[in-house]
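thought: fold this chain, then report.
action: predict
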Amino acid sequence: MLAAVPVLAVAQSSPDENLVQYVRPIIGTQRMGHVYPGATVPFGMVQLSPDTDTIPYEMNGKYNPDVYKYCAGYQYDDKTIVGFSHTHFSGTGHSDLGDFLIMPTVGALKLNPGVADQPRSGFRSAFSHTTETAEADYYKVKLDDYNILAELTASTRVGMHQYTFPATDQAHIILDMMSGIYNYEDKNVWTFVRVENDTLVTGWRQTNGWGRTRTEYFALSFSKPFIQYGAANYGKKQVYRGFWGKFNQNHNFPDIAGKQIRLYFDFRTAEGEKIKLKMALSSVSTEGALLNLRAEVPGWDFEQVKKEGQASWNRELAKARIDAAREEKENFYTSLYHAFINPTVYMDVDGSYRGLDQVNHKAEGFVNYTTFSLWDTHRALHPLFNILEPARNADMIKSMLVHFDQSTQHMLPIWSHYANENWCMSGYHSVSVIADAIVKGNTPFDANKALDACIATAGHRDFMGLGAYIDKGYVPSENSGTSVSNTLEYAYDDWSIAQAAKKLGRMDVYTTFLKRSENYKNVWDASIGYMRPRLSDGSFRKEFDVLSTNDQGFIEGNAWNYSLYVPHDPAALITMMGGKQRFVRHLDSLFTMDLPDKFFAETEDITRDGIIGNYVHGNEPSHHVAYLYNWTDQPWKTQERVRMILKKQYRNAPDGLGGNDDCGQMSAWYIFSTLGFYPVAPGSDQYALGSPAVNGAILHLENGKDLVIEVQGQGEKNVYVKKVLLNGQPLNRRYITHQEIMAGGKLVFYMSEKH
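observation:
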C-alpha cells in the first residue's frame, strides 16, 4: 500500500515568500534570447533598458546581419552602453522601438555615441557586469567612463531614472531622438521637442519601420532644474526650411523639430548628488503623457516606485508557487517573468489610445493591449493566460476585436504593435487565441461577434495565398515561398474556428471549417512520407530537400519538423504516416539524428543552440512535437523527451535560452512542461500530460480555487510517470481538461526511474 500523501511543503511554508529574488532578467540577453534586462512592470507600456550599441539596419544599401543580435537593444558580450531607452521587444526575431534614449555624461559635451572599438569617441560609456544588477523592475550599472551610477525602475507608463553624479560643473543628460532599434537613416519621419520650463520637456516622434506609421509621445520631468540646454540637428539639409533661421535653435531654444535631433541638458552637481528623471509615454498626446506621469509617479521617491513595481511582480509570480531547488526556481520564475511582459498595455490612464485607424479612441470597460506576436504566442502563452490570467486574456481578445473594427482589411491581428499591423509571419492565429478562450469558457466578450471576425479573417482571399487555399485546398508553391507551412497553419486555424463554432452551436460554420481543417492532407506526399510544396497543377515540386530550412516551402523550419505540424489531429497524422510504430521511429530519429549546419545556415532564426538532433526547439512550430508520443503506444517517450528538452534548452545563463523567447512563447512552453502538462492544440480543452520537473506546485486561480500539483518520487532520473491521480481518483488517460484544472483540487504524479 502507498503511504498517505503529505501536504505539499510549499503550501505550508512561505505564502509571502518574495519570488522576485528568483527572477534573472539577464537570462536570454546573449545570442538568440533577445530579451532585455531593464525595468518594466507586468505587461507594462514602458520597458526601460540599456542599449549597448547603435548597429545600423543597413549598410551600403543592404541588410546588415549584425543588427539581428540587437533585437532587444542589449548584448551581454558588449563592453559599452550608449544609453537607456524606454521601449523594447522581448525575445523577438525582428525589431523596432528603442524610443527616447537617455544618457548621462560628465566632462566635455559629446553628442555622437561614437563607436564600440573607440569608446571615448562619443558619449557611450564602458561598463562591467561586476557592477551591473538586474532584477524585476530594477536595473543598476556603473558607467565607468563618467563615474556615474545609473539606476532604473518603472511603473506601467512611466520610466524613472536615478543618476548619482560625481562633483562637476559639466554634468549633462542627453536626450537622443535619433536612436532606435533596427535603425536606419530615414526611419524617423519627424520628431518634435518642446521645453516647457527648466524641469519639464515634452515631445513626440513618428517612425517608419516594422510599424509603418508609429507615433509615440512623451513627457520628461527632471528632479533638478537644468542650467542650460541645447540641440543639434543631424538631418539632411532641407530644400525649404521656412523662416526659422532668424533664431539660434541650437542653444536654449524651446521649440525643436527635425528628423534627426539630439538634445542636452546641463547641470552642476556635488559629489554623490542624485538627479532623477521621470519619462511618461502616451500613444495619444503629450497631454496624455503628462496625465500618466502625474497619475502614476507624482513624487520623486525612486525606492517607492521600485518597491511598488516589484510588489506588482510578486503578486503575478505568486499565481504559481513551486517547490523546487533554487536553480529550478530561478528558471521557472524567470520564465514566468518573461511570460508576463507581453502583450503590453497600450492606453493612457483615462483609457485613451491610438487605434489602427490612426484615430484616438477610448477603451470602455477593458484594458487595451498591443504587441501581439501571435504566430508564436497562440501556441502556449495565451493558453497559459487562460489559466493564470483569464481576465487579462479576455481584454487582449477585446483589443484584437477593436483592431478588427479599425482595420481597413477587416482582419484580426497577424502581428501588431503600436497602432500598426506589421503582417509578420504566417497564419491568422488570433483566431486560435479567440477559439481557445471560447472553448474554455473565458468569454466576457461577445463570443459570436468574435467568431464572425474569425470567419471574416479566414475568408480574406488576398492574404498570403488564402484565396488559392480556399479554392484548391492548399497554397500553391508558385504563390508563396512558404506555401506548405501556410497550408498547415491555415488548416489548424480553420479547425480552431470549427471548435469555437461548435461551442456556440453554429453547426454550419463548424461543418465548413472542419472540412477546411483537413487541407493539411493536400500537401502530404505519400511517396516520400513528408509534407511537400505542391504546384498549381496538382503535382509536387521536383526540387526538394527534406532537411533544408531554406526555400523549401516552410517558414523557420524544414520538412522533418513541419510534417508533424497537425496539432489538431495527431491520430490522423499517425495513420497517414504509416501507423504508430513507424511514427515513433520518425519521432525518435528527429531527436537523435545529426543536422549539419549547412541545412540551416541561411535561416537567421535557427542556430545550433536551439537544436536537439533535428528537433528545432528554438522555433515554435516544433513545440508540440515531444508530446505526440502520447498518441502512440510509447507515451513514456514524451516524458523522457520533455525532461531532456527542459534540461538542455533552459538554464540560468546569459545564453540560457535555446532560441528567441518570442514575447513569452519559449517561456510558456517551459512553464507548462515543468508543471507536467501542455496545450498541444489550443482550441481544445485538453492538455497533454508530460513529466513534471518540480517537487510540487500550487496554482492560485482567479476564481479563488487552487490546483495543487504533487510529485511523488521526483528525481533527476525519475522522469517517467507511473500513474496520475486527480482528486484521489486514477486519471486513466493521457490528458487533463481545462475544466479539471480550473475546478482546483489535487493532481498527483507518481514518478519512477523505469518506464
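thought: worth noting. The mean pLDDT is 95.
final: C-alpha cells above.
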